[in-house]
Amino acid sequence: MRFVQIPLPPHLPKRWLTIYAARSAGLSACPTHDLRSTYFKKHSSWGRLKMWLAQASQYRCWYCEAKSDRAPFDVDHFRPKLGVTVDGAVLLGHDGYYWLAYEWWNFRLSCQRCNRPEKDSSGVLHGKANEFPVRDEAHRCALPAAVLAAEEPMLLDPCVQADCELLAHGIDGEVKPLASEGTWDNQRARYTIDRLGLNWNTPETKKNSWRLLDDLIRLAGHQPAVVAHLQEHLSTDHEYSSFFRSAIGTHRDKAWVEALL
Ligand SMILES: [Zn+2]
Q: What angle (nearest 5°) sits at the alpha carbon of residue 112, between those of residues 170 and 142?
């Protein structure tokens, strides 16, 4: 997970502001959960921002950094719009964060592997879907007037730089918590890794690329072509660049590698 800066106005597509005003007005005329559900089905306008969101991350999933060849992209609502689940159980008495349904700052570009529920071969369910646990339910927001800043989401947010720094990478491509066992930061990282399935079917391309880079560093050494190749993988435009930064960092004992990081 690499920090993604949400482009706020004036970098928002002008057409979206018109759509946003119309949808907000339409939503305010839907006082019940059923009416809102119907309204969202008819007006899933957030899809119109998909390309705009993709440009902000150089066409990579904001959660796992995969390009769309892992799976097509969805526009995920970070705070779910129509209901909340915690560990798969519906949170009773909560209708979802419906008032955020058309707020662009609640959108995250997500590949379908990260977003949609699916069981792995061991029967473990992955996919964010409507999952949104918080540290203390007493501080959960349930109405538009509530203060979102009082919530402490369990899921790491790619739009919060400090959250992205809570994940580390093994050289085998495995994503791991950085903080010590037993801490809240460790819990958040572990939850995010498991829920999004970040270690489920680690792409072979990721591992193979690292094997090649590792060989180049060890066997070819400090040569312009090797430096250029490493720089390409460290670029924020590159798929899995946070993984490659960690993996290349295992050769920090070489001054020329350290200088690239
Ligand atoms: Zn993803």
A: 100
Q: What is the pTM of this model?
A: 0.85
Distance from the alpha carbon of residue 115 to the mean position of ligand 1, in angstroms: 7
* Residue 123 Rama label (left phi>0; alpha psi -120 to 50; beta): left
Asked whether 238 and 247 are in contact (CB, 8 A), the reply is: no
Q: Which helix (H) or strand (E) holds 190?
A: helix 184-196
3-state secondary structure of 6: coil
How far away, in angstroms, is 7 Cα from ligand 1 center? 20
Q: How many whole angstroms from 73 Cα to the centroid of ligand 1? A: 8
**Tens-level pLDDT at each residue, the chain (261 residues):** 889 988 777 788 889 999 999 999 999 999 999 999 999 999 999 999 998 999 899 889 999 988 876 557 999 999 999 999 999 899 999 999 999 999 999 999 999 989 998 888 888 889 999 999 999 999 999 999 889 999 999 999 999 999 999 998 887 888 999 999 999 999 999 999 999 999 887 777 778 888 888 888 888 888 999 999 899 989 887 888 888 888 888 898 999 999 998
The one-letter amino acid code at 32 reads T
Domain ranges (residues) in the chain = 14-196, 204-258
194 alpha carbon – ligand 1 mean position (Å): 13
How far is ligand 1, taken at its centre, from the CA of residue 69, in Å?
A: 10
How many angstroms separate the alpha carbon of residue 56 from the centre of ligand 1? Answer: 15
Ligand 1 center to 20 CA (angstroms): 26
